[in-house]
Amino acid sequence: MIKQFTKLNVSETREAINKALNSLRETHGINVSLGNISYSDKSFTVKATASIIPTPGIVEPDYVMAWKNGDNMIHGIDSKYLNTIVHVHGEDYKIVGCTSRRSKYTIIVEDKNKKLIKLRSCDVLISIRSIYG
Description:
Blueprint: H1 7-28, E1 30-39, E2 44-52, H2 62-68, E3 85-88, E4 91-98, E5 107-110, E6 116-119, H3 121-132
Antiparallel strand pairs: 1-2, 3-4, 4-5, 5-6
């Protein structure tokens, strides 16, 4: 039994929660992923994101689902540019999705090391127009 939350038992608790959430994937066809956990001695807080599994066995991240649901149009970028290479701030990135809400950094891209980065939609639009017309 946990009497006080520590870094170690919060990590163990995350693993236990993930195992429990896996049953949702199998029985309801949804994927639930946990975000960062902040904790104190007596409690912890975690953001959980649920997404529908579009094809049995294939789980798409929420940023891809947002793009496929048309949220990219909120940011002014056509759907055909998913997985397209853009050149922003001297670097090449592949567009992999977007956020589902309006914010400053809305387009999710992947760099050459497969790291996910958020870029401003206006920077991505400028690159798309200069490369693809």
